[in-house]
Amino acid sequence: MNTAVATLLELQRSAGTRLHVLHVSSREAIRMIRAAKAAGRPVTAEANPFAMFITNSWDRVEQGGPYVLGQWVPDQDSEAMWETVVDGTIDVVGSDHAPHTSQEKQAGWDDLYAAPSGSPMIADYLRLLLTAVNDGRLSLERVVELCCTAPARLAGLSGRKGVLTVGADADLVIVDMDHEEVLRNENSPYKCRWTPANGMLTRGRPAVTVRRGTVIAEEGRVLAAAGSGQFLGHG
Fold first, then answer.
1. Could you point out which of 22, 54, 134, 179 has its C-alpha 20 to 30 Å from the C-alpha of 202?
2. CA torsion 52→155→150→216, rounded to 10°?
3. CB-based contact 69:112 (threshold 8 Å)
4. For residue 65, what pLDDT band results from cuts at 50, 70 and 90?
5. Is 96 a catalytic residue?
6. Which fold has domain 2-222?
7. What is the pTM assigned to this prediction?
8. Percent of the chain beyond pLDDT 90?
C-alpha cells in the first residue's frame, strides 16, 4: 500500500488534480496523506471498517478460507487508523462490500491470485461504528460525517444526499443505540452466509432506513422492491 500511495501522491502533485485514496490501512500511508493535506493539496481518503475493527490476529487466520485476500491490518496500524478517523485525516468510511462465498475464497489456499478479493461488510459496518460511539471512541456526529455528509460532498451530491434539509431526498437512518447483538455467520443476511465480524459483540444498529421519504428497511427486513434504486452520477 505504501508504495502505491506514494506513487499516487507524486502523480497528483505533478498533475495538480484531485486525488481520492481508497482503503487506507497503514501508518506510513496515513503519514503521507496527512502531509499532503497539510500542504493544502486536494487529497481525500477512505477507510474500510476492516482497518479499525478486524486486525491481523492468528485466531482469524485459523478460521480459514473466508479471510483469504481480505484486508489484514496489524494492531499498531489499526490504532493509527482510529486516530485518523477521529482527527479528520480520513474523510469517509466505505463498506467495500464483496460477499464472496467461502468456497470461492478457498481457491486462494492453492493460488493466492485465484481467490476473489474483498469481504462482506455492508450490513455490519454501521453496527460496528455505533458500537464505537457507545464505547466513547467516536461521536455520533462524526459517524454521520463519515458515512453520509462527506461521501455526498465528494460525489458532488451535497444538498441532495447526506443531509436533512429542505429540498434534499429525505434519506435517513433511525438507529437504536441500545440494541446488543453478537454477529454470527448463521444470521448473516449476505448471500455468502458469513461475516468477518463473526463473534463480535455490537451495541447499536440501524432500526429503520428511509429513502426519498419511503421506509425501505425495518428491524432487519428489506422492504424495498428489487430494482427500485437509482444510479446517481457525480453531481
1. 22
2. -80
3. yes
4. very low
5. yes
6. TIM Barrel (3.20.20)
7. 0.89
8. 63
